[in-house]
Protein backbone atom coordinates (compact mmCIF):
# COMPACT_ATOMS: atom_id res chain seq x y z
CA UNK A 1 0.00 0.00 0.00
CA UNK A 2 2.58 2.58 1.09
CA UNK A 3 4.90 2.44 -1.94
CA UNK A 4 1.86 2.72 -4.23
CA UNK A 5 0.49 5.64 -2.22
CA UNK A 6 3.72 7.62 -2.33
CA UNK A 7 4.13 7.09 -6.09
CA UNK A 8 0.50 7.60 -7.19
CA UNK A 9 -1.85 10.59 -7.37
CA UNK A 10 -3.69 10.34 -4.08
CA UNK A 11 -7.04 11.27 -5.57
CA UNK A 12 -6.86 8.23 -7.86
CA UNK A 13 -5.44 5.94 -5.20
CA UNK A 14 -7.93 6.74 -2.43
CA UNK A 15 -10.83 7.24 -4.84
CA UNK A 16 -10.01 3.92 -6.51
CA UNK A 17 -9.98 2.06 -3.20
CA UNK A 18 -13.38 3.55 -2.33
CA UNK A 19 -14.80 2.63 -5.74
CA UNK A 20 -13.70 -1.00 -5.65
CA UNK A 21 -14.85 -1.28 -2.01
CA UNK A 22 -18.30 -0.15 -3.11
CA UNK A 23 -18.39 -2.62 -6.01
CA UNK A 24 -17.36 -5.52 -3.77
CA UNK A 25 -19.96 -4.48 -1.20
CA UNK A 26 -22.61 -4.51 -3.92
CA UNK A 27 -21.53 -7.99 -5.00
CA UNK A 28 -22.16 -9.27 -1.47
CA UNK A 29 -25.84 -8.68 -2.14
CA UNK A 30 -25.80 -11.31 -4.87
CA UNK A 31 -23.87 -14.15 -3.21
CA UNK A 32 -25.36 -17.65 -3.04
CA UNK A 33 -22.63 -19.53 -1.19
CA UNK A 34 -20.62 -19.18 1.99
CA UNK A 35 -17.36 -19.50 0.03
CA UNK A 36 -18.26 -16.55 -2.19
CA UNK A 37 -19.18 -14.47 0.85
CA UNK A 38 -15.82 -15.20 2.52
CA UNK A 39 -13.93 -14.30 -0.68
CA UNK A 40 -15.80 -11.02 -1.00
CA UNK A 41 -15.23 -10.17 2.66
CA UNK A 42 -11.52 -10.74 2.09
CA UNK A 43 -11.52 -8.37 -0.89
CA UNK A 44 -13.50 -5.85 1.14
CA UNK A 45 -10.73 -5.84 3.72
CA UNK A 46 -8.04 -5.53 1.03
CA UNK A 47 -9.58 -2.39 -0.44
CA UNK A 48 -10.43 -0.87 2.93
CA UNK A 49 -6.98 -1.43 4.46
CA UNK A 50 -5.27 1.41 2.64
CA UNK A 51 -7.89 4.10 3.16
CA UNK A 52 -7.42 5.12 6.80
CA UNK A 53 -3.58 5.20 6.85
CA UNK A 54 -3.63 6.91 3.48
CA UNK A 55 -5.91 9.68 4.76
CA UNK A 56 -3.88 10.10 7.96
CA UNK A 57 -0.62 10.30 6.02
CA UNK A 58 -1.92 12.67 3.33
CA UNK A 59 -3.49 15.04 5.87
CA UNK A 60 -0.29 15.16 7.89
CA UNK A 61 1.57 16.43 4.82
CA UNK A 62 -0.45 19.66 4.75
CA UNK A 63 -0.58 20.73 8.40
CA UNK A 64 1.86 21.47 11.17
CA UNK A 65 1.88 19.00 14.03
CA UNK A 66 -0.35 21.01 16.35
CA UNK A 67 -2.84 21.81 13.58
CA UNK A 68 -3.28 18.15 12.64
CA UNK A 69 -5.45 17.03 15.58
CA UNK A 70 -8.48 19.15 14.70
CA UNK A 71 -8.41 17.93 11.10
CA UNK A 72 -8.28 14.31 12.23
CA UNK A 73 -11.27 14.86 14.49
CA UNK A 74 -13.27 16.41 11.65
CA UNK A 75 -12.49 13.29 9.63
CA UNK A 76 -13.67 11.05 12.47
CA UNK A 77 -16.89 13.05 12.65
CA UNK A 78 -17.80 11.49 9.31
CA UNK A 79 -17.83 8.08 10.98
CA UNK A 80 -20.17 9.45 13.65
CA UNK A 81 -22.50 10.91 11.04
CA UNK A 82 -22.43 7.57 9.24
CA UNK A 83 -23.16 5.75 12.48
CA UNK A 84 -26.01 8.09 13.32
CA UNK A 85 -27.83 7.64 10.03
CA UNK A 86 -26.50 4.29 8.80
CA UNK A 87 -28.77 2.33 11.09
CA UNK A 88 -31.85 4.28 10.04
CA UNK A 89 -30.87 3.89 6.39
CA UNK A 90 -30.50 0.15 6.84
CA UNK A 91 -33.88 0.05 8.59
CA UNK A 92 -35.49 1.90 5.67
CA UNK A 93 -33.80 -0.29 3.06
CA UNK A 94 -35.00 -3.36 4.94
CA UNK A 95 -38.52 -2.46 3.78
CA UNK A 96 -37.38 -3.14 0.21
CA UNK A 97 -37.48 -6.86 0.93
CA UNK A 98 -39.10 -8.74 -1.95
CA UNK A 99 -38.37 -6.01 -4.51
CA UNK A 100 -37.05 -7.64 -7.71
CA UNK A 101 -37.23 -10.93 -5.86
CA UNK A 102 -34.33 -10.03 -3.55
CA UNK A 103 -34.32 -10.32 0.23
CA UNK A 104 -34.03 -7.17 2.34
CA UNK A 105 -30.49 -7.94 3.55
CA UNK A 106 -29.31 -8.15 -0.05
CA UNK A 107 -30.69 -4.68 -0.79
CA UNK A 108 -28.71 -3.24 2.15
CA UNK A 109 -25.44 -4.36 0.56
CA UNK A 110 -26.49 -3.36 -2.95
CA UNK A 111 -27.76 0.15 -2.14
CA UNK A 112 -24.98 1.10 0.30
CA UNK A 113 -22.30 -0.33 -2.02
CA UNK A 114 -23.69 1.55 -5.02
CA UNK A 115 -23.82 4.80 -3.01
CA UNK A 116 -20.16 4.38 -2.01
CA UNK A 117 -19.10 3.71 -5.61
CA UNK A 118 -20.93 6.83 -6.81
CA UNK A 119 -19.43 9.02 -4.07
CA UNK A 120 -15.96 7.70 -4.96
CA UNK A 121 -16.24 9.29 -8.40
CA UNK A 122 -16.84 12.67 -6.78
CA UNK A 123 -13.97 12.03 -4.37
CA UNK A 124 -11.60 11.46 -7.27
CA UNK A 125 -12.09 15.11 -8.22
CA UNK A 126 -12.11 16.53 -4.68
CA UNK A 127 -9.23 14.71 -2.93
CA UNK A 128 -6.00 16.70 -3.04
CA UNK A 129 -2.68 15.34 -4.27
CA UNK A 130 0.70 15.66 -2.56
CA UNK A 131 1.73 19.27 -1.85
CA UNK A 132 4.28 19.13 -4.66
CA UNK A 133 1.56 18.06 -7.15
CA UNK A 134 -1.52 19.95 -5.97
CA UNK A 135 -3.16 22.24 -8.50
CA UNK A 136 -5.27 24.40 -6.19
CA UNK A 137 -2.17 26.16 -4.80
CA UNK A 138 0.01 28.53 -6.78
CA UNK A 139 3.83 28.30 -6.58
CA UNK A 140 4.06 30.93 -3.85
CA UNK A 141 1.49 29.11 -1.73
CA UNK A 142 3.29 25.78 -2.20
CA UNK A 143 6.53 27.43 -1.12
CA UNK A 144 4.80 28.85 1.96
CA UNK A 145 3.37 25.41 2.78
CA UNK A 146 6.82 23.82 2.57
CA UNK A 147 8.31 26.56 4.71
CA UNK A 148 5.67 26.09 7.41
CA UNK A 149 6.35 22.35 7.54
CA UNK A 150 10.10 22.93 7.53
CA UNK A 151 9.75 25.32 10.49
CA UNK A 152 7.87 22.53 12.27
CA UNK A 153 10.91 20.24 12.06
CA UNK A 154 10.29 18.53 8.73
CA UNK A 155 13.63 19.62 7.23
CA UNK A 156 15.69 18.58 10.25
CA UNK A 157 14.24 15.08 10.56
CA UNK A 158 13.87 13.73 7.04
CA UNK A 159 13.47 10.16 5.86
CA UNK A 160 13.15 10.30 2.09
CA UNK A 161 14.98 7.07 1.29
CA UNK A 162 13.75 3.60 2.24
CA UNK A 163 16.87 1.52 2.87
CA UNK A 164 18.00 -1.07 5.42
CA UNK A 165 18.93 1.58 7.98
CA UNK A 166 15.56 3.33 7.59
CA UNK A 167 13.68 0.03 7.94
CA UNK A 168 15.58 -0.71 11.14
CA UNK A 169 14.68 2.70 12.58
CA UNK A 170 11.03 2.18 11.68
CA UNK A 171 10.56 -1.36 12.98
CA UNK A 172 12.52 -0.78 16.19
CA UNK A 173 10.71 2.45 17.08
CA UNK A 174 8.86 1.95 20.37
CA UNK A 175 6.69 4.99 19.63
CA UNK A 176 5.02 3.17 16.74
CA UNK A 177 4.24 0.06 18.76
CA UNK A 178 3.02 1.95 21.83
CA UNK A 179 0.94 4.24 19.60
CA UNK A 180 -0.56 1.17 17.94
CA UNK A 181 -1.41 -0.32 21.33
CA UNK A 182 -3.09 2.94 22.37
CA UNK A 183 -5.23 3.00 19.24
CA UNK A 184 -6.16 -0.66 19.62
CA UNK A 185 -7.10 -0.18 23.29
CA UNK A 186 -9.21 2.96 23.02
CA UNK A 187 -10.60 1.84 19.65
CA UNK A 188 -12.58 -1.00 21.21
CA UNK A 189 -15.34 1.45 22.15
CA UNK A 190 -15.72 2.74 18.61
CA UNK A 191 -16.07 -0.76 17.18
CA UNK A 192 -18.41 -1.89 19.96
CA UNK A 193 -20.58 1.17 19.41
CA UNK A 194 -20.75 0.61 15.67
CA UNK A 195 -21.47 -3.11 15.91
CA UNK A 196 -23.73 -3.46 18.92
CA UNK A 197 -25.26 -0.18 20.14
CA UNK A 198 -28.65 -0.73 18.43
CA UNK A 199 -28.76 -4.26 19.88
CA UNK A 200 -27.83 -3.03 23.36
CA UNK A 201 -30.44 -0.26 23.26
CA UNK A 202 -33.09 -2.71 22.06
CA UNK A 203 -32.44 -4.69 25.26
CA UNK A 204 -33.57 -1.63 27.23
CA UNK A 205 -37.10 -2.45 26.11
CA UNK A 206 -37.28 -0.23 23.03
CA UNK A 207 -38.45 -1.37 19.63
CA UNK A 208 -35.92 -1.81 16.82
CA UNK A 209 -36.93 1.51 15.25
CA UNK A 210 -36.82 3.35 18.59
CA UNK A 211 -33.40 1.86 19.37
CA UNK A 212 -32.07 3.10 16.04
CA UNK A 213 -33.43 6.59 16.73
CA UNK A 214 -31.87 6.62 20.21
CA UNK A 215 -28.39 6.04 18.70
CA UNK A 216 -28.47 9.46 17.01
CA UNK A 217 -28.10 11.59 20.19
CA UNK A 218 -25.18 9.42 21.29
CA UNK A 219 -23.32 10.03 18.04
CA UNK A 220 -24.16 13.75 18.14
CA UNK A 221 -22.75 14.17 21.66
CA UNK A 222 -19.64 12.20 20.68
CA UNK A 223 -19.07 14.45 17.67
CA UNK A 224 -19.27 17.61 19.77
CA UNK A 225 -17.06 16.18 22.51
CA UNK A 226 -14.49 14.98 19.98
CA UNK A 227 -14.21 18.40 18.33
CA UNK A 228 -13.99 20.26 21.65
CA UNK A 229 -11.21 17.93 22.85
CA UNK A 230 -9.37 18.33 19.54
CA UNK A 231 -9.56 22.13 19.71
CA UNK A 232 -8.37 22.19 23.33
CA UNK A 233 -5.57 19.70 22.63
CA UNK A 234 -4.32 21.78 19.71
CA UNK A 235 -4.60 24.99 21.69
CA UNK A 236 -2.40 23.78 24.56
CA UNK A 237 -0.22 21.57 22.31
CA UNK A 238 -0.71 18.52 24.47
CA UNK A 239 -2.11 15.04 23.73
CA UNK A 240 -1.63 12.64 26.65
CA UNK A 241 -3.91 14.37 29.15
CA UNK A 242 -6.80 14.46 26.69
CA UNK A 243 -6.37 10.79 25.80
CA UNK A 244 -6.63 9.99 29.51
CA UNK A 245 -9.71 12.21 29.90
CA UNK A 246 -11.37 10.00 27.29
CA UNK A 247 -10.22 6.84 29.08
CA UNK A 248 -11.63 8.07 32.42
CA UNK A 249 -14.97 9.09 30.88
CA UNK A 250 -15.32 5.63 29.28
CA UNK A 251 -14.42 4.03 32.61
CA UNK A 252 -17.36 5.72 34.33
CA UNK A 253 -19.68 4.58 31.55
CA UNK A 254 -18.53 0.96 31.61
CA UNK A 255 -18.59 1.01 35.41
CA UNK A 256 -22.30 1.84 35.42
CA UNK A 257 -23.04 -0.76 32.76
CA UNK A 258 -21.12 -3.45 34.65
CA UNK A 259 -22.94 -2.66 37.89
CA UNK A 260 -26.37 -3.46 36.49
CA UNK A 261 -28.16 -6.49 37.85
CA UNK A 262 -28.28 -9.70 35.83
CA UNK A 263 -31.75 -10.47 37.16
CA UNK A 264 -34.44 -10.28 34.47
CA UNK A 265 -36.74 -8.60 36.99
CA UNK A 266 -34.36 -5.70 37.58
CA UNK A 267 -32.68 -5.40 34.21
CA UNK A 268 -34.99 -2.84 32.63
CA UNK A 269 -36.10 -0.27 35.28
CA UNK A 270 -32.74 1.52 35.10
CA UNK A 271 -32.77 1.96 31.33
CA UNK A 272 -32.34 5.75 31.66
CA UNK A 273 -29.15 5.33 33.72
CA UNK A 274 -27.81 2.70 31.34
CA UNK A 275 -28.61 4.94 28.39
CA UNK A 276 -26.61 7.74 30.04
CA UNK A 277 -23.76 5.27 30.60
CA UNK A 278 -23.74 4.45 26.87
CA UNK A 279 -23.20 8.18 26.24
CA UNK A 280 -20.19 8.20 28.58
CA UNK A 281 -18.60 5.01 27.24
CA UNK A 282 -18.94 6.12 23.63
CA UNK A 283 -17.90 9.74 24.30
CA UNK A 284 -14.67 8.70 26.00
CA UNK A 285 -13.74 6.32 23.22
CA UNK A 286 -14.39 8.79 20.44
CA UNK A 287 -12.43 11.52 22.21
CA UNK A 288 -9.38 9.26 22.48
CA UNK A 289 -9.34 7.58 19.04
CA UNK A 290 -8.42 10.55 16.80
CA UNK A 291 -6.06 11.80 19.51
CA UNK A 292 -4.19 8.49 19.39
CA UNK A 293 -3.74 8.75 15.61
CA UNK A 294 -2.66 12.39 15.69
CA UNK A 295 -0.32 11.91 18.66
CA UNK A 296 1.70 9.22 16.93
CA UNK A 297 1.78 11.11 13.63
CA UNK A 298 2.98 14.23 15.50
CA UNK A 299 5.97 12.27 16.78
CA UNK A 300 7.02 10.63 13.51
CA UNK A 301 9.02 12.63 11.02
CA UNK A 302 10.13 11.84 7.51
CA UNK A 303 7.97 10.57 4.63
CA UNK A 304 8.69 6.88 5.05
CA UNK A 305 8.62 6.89 8.84
CA UNK A 306 5.25 8.60 8.96
CA UNK A 307 3.79 6.47 6.18
CA UNK A 308 4.81 3.14 7.69
CA UNK A 309 3.99 4.32 11.21
CA UNK A 310 0.41 5.24 10.24
CA UNK A 311 -0.01 1.93 8.41
CA UNK A 312 1.25 -0.14 11.33
CA UNK A 313 -0.87 1.77 13.84
CA UNK A 314 -4.10 1.30 11.90
CA UNK A 315 -3.31 -2.36 11.18
CA UNK A 316 -2.68 -3.20 14.84
CA UNK A 317 -5.56 -0.99 15.97
CA UNK A 318 -8.01 -2.83 13.74
CA UNK A 319 -7.50 -5.92 15.88
CA UNK A 320 -9.94 -4.19 18.22
CA UNK A 321 -12.61 -4.91 15.62
CA UNK A 322 -11.90 -8.63 15.85
CA UNK A 323 -12.25 -8.47 19.63
CA UNK A 324 -15.34 -6.25 19.62
CA UNK A 325 -17.24 -8.51 17.26
CA UNK A 326 -16.90 -11.48 19.62
CA UNK A 327 -17.35 -10.16 23.16
CA UNK A 328 -21.06 -9.29 23.23
CA UNK A 329 -22.48 -12.76 23.81
CA UNK A 330 -26.18 -13.27 23.17
CA UNK A 331 -26.79 -15.48 26.20
CA UNK A 332 -25.43 -12.70 28.49
CA UNK A 333 -28.13 -10.26 27.38
CA UNK A 334 -29.00 -7.73 28.74
CA UNK A 335 -26.04 -7.43 31.17
CA UNK A 336 -23.30 -8.28 28.63
CA UNK A 337 -20.70 -8.67 31.39
CA UNK A 338 -18.06 -10.05 29.03
CA UNK A 339 -18.60 -7.29 26.48
CA UNK A 340 -18.43 -4.39 28.92
CA UNK A 341 -15.65 -5.99 30.99
CA UNK A 342 -13.37 -6.68 28.04
CA UNK A 343 -14.04 -3.23 26.59
CA UNK A 344 -13.13 -1.62 29.91
CA UNK A 345 -9.95 -3.71 30.21
CA UNK A 346 -8.84 -2.85 26.66
CA UNK A 347 -9.58 0.82 27.24
CA UNK A 348 -7.15 0.76 30.15
CA UNK A 349 -4.59 -1.15 28.10
CA UNK A 350 -4.72 1.87 25.81
CA UNK A 351 -4.51 4.20 28.81
CA UNK A 352 -1.46 2.43 30.26
CA UNK A 353 0.24 2.42 26.84
CA UNK A 354 -0.45 6.16 26.59
CA UNK A 355 1.11 6.70 30.02
CA UNK A 356 4.19 4.71 29.00
CA UNK A 357 4.47 6.70 25.77
CA UNK A 358 4.19 10.01 27.64
CA UNK A 359 6.87 9.00 30.17
CA UNK A 360 9.28 7.82 27.48
CA UNK A 361 8.72 10.84 25.22
CA UNK A 362 9.29 13.20 28.13
CA UNK A 363 12.51 11.38 29.02
CA UNK A 364 13.63 11.45 25.38
CA UNK A 365 13.06 15.20 25.13
CA UNK A 366 15.12 15.79 28.29
CA UNK A 367 18.00 13.68 26.93
CA UNK A 368 17.94 15.54 23.63
CA UNK A 369 17.83 18.95 25.27
CA UNK A 370 20.81 17.93 27.42
CA UNK A 371 22.81 16.88 24.35
CA UNK A 372 23.10 13.29 25.56
CA UNK A 373 21.85 11.86 22.24
CA UNK A 374 24.09 13.97 20.00
CA UNK A 375 26.33 10.91 19.78
CA UNK A 376 23.90 9.55 17.19
CA UNK A 377 25.23 12.13 14.76
CA UNK A 378 28.86 11.31 15.48
CA UNK A 379 28.38 7.63 14.65
CA UNK A 380 26.29 8.17 11.52
CA UNK A 381 27.37 8.45 7.89
CA UNK A 382 26.30 11.47 5.87
CA UNK A 383 23.45 9.56 4.20
CA UNK A 384 22.27 8.14 7.53
CA UNK A 385 22.35 11.57 9.15
CA UNK A 386 20.09 13.00 6.41
CA UNK A 387 17.72 10.03 6.61
CA UNK A 388 17.18 9.65 10.36
CA UNK A 389 13.64 10.93 10.61
CA UNK A 390 12.63 11.70 14.20
CA UNK A 391 15.65 9.69 15.40
CA UNK A 392 17.61 12.89 14.76
CA UNK A 393 18.45 14.45 18.17
CA UNK A 394 17.30 17.91 17.04
CA UNK A 395 13.68 16.71 16.75
CA UNK A 396 11.40 17.38 19.74
CA UNK A 397 8.39 15.25 20.64
CA UNK A 398 4.83 16.32 21.39
CA UNK A 399 3.59 15.25 24.80
TrEMBL record:
Q: Where does it live in the cell?
A: Membrane
Q: Which domain of life is it from?
A: Eukaryota
* GO annotation, cellular component aspect: membrane
The record's section on PANTHER family has: PERMEASE-RELATED, TRANSPORTER, PUTATIVE (AFU_ORTHOLOGUE AFUA_1G11820)-RELATED
Q: Which InterPro entries match?
A: MFS (IPR011701), MFS_dom (IPR020846), MFS_trans_sf (IPR036259)
What GO molecular function annotations does the UniProt record carry, in alphabetical order? transmembrane transporter activity
TM stretches of this protein: 12-32, 38-60, 72-93, 105-128, 176-196, 216-233, 240-257, 277-296, 308-329, 341-361
Task: Please give the name of this protein.
Answer: Major facilitator superfamily (MFS) profile domain-containing protein
Mainly localized where? Answer: membrane
Taking every annotated instance into account, which residue ranges of this chain make up the domain Major facilitator superfamily (MFS) profile? 1-368
Please name the Pfam families in this protein's record. Answer: MFS_1
Q: Which UniProt keywords apply?
A: Membrane, Transmembrane, Transmembrane helix, Transport
Task: List the membrane topology term(s).
Answer: Multi-pass membrane protein
Amino acid sequence: MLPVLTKSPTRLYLGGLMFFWGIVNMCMGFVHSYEALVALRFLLGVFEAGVMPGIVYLTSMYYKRHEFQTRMSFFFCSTLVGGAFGGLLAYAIAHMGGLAGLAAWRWIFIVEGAATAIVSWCAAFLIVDWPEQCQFLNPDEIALLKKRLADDGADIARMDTLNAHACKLILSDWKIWLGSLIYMGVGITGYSTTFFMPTILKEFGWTVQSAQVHTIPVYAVCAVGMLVAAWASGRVRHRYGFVMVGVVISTFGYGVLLSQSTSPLSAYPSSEAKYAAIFLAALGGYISMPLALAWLSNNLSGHWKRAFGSGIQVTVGNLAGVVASNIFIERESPAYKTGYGVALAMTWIGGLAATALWVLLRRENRLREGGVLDERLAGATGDEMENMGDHHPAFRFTL
